[in-house]
Design brief:
The protein has about 100 residues and is an alpha+beta fold. It contains three helices and two strands, in the order αβααβ.
Length: about 100
Amino acid sequence: MDDEVPKLGLWGMGGVGKTSIMKVINNQLLKETGNFDIVVWIIVSKEMSIAKLQKDIASKIGVDFSGDEDEITRAGMLYETLLQKSRFVMILAIYGESFP
């Protein structure tokens, strides 16, 4: 909840409850409507493309893509929308083999 903490990572071996604790945190943040402008939960698989991830995020934050934007343009649109939010939480639940 501290403004000085811009991001938080949680990782560990499978089956220890990472997703469960993040679901609890997500649900609690959704209840506390005064603290954040938006709370977003996105499931990301190892095989997911950047375009699919951008479309999933866009649908959660109310951005409409026309369909002919490139990856950089979509990223800019998402960034500009998120800049308009004073505080937001985006939880990316990543599944699959290890990510870099």
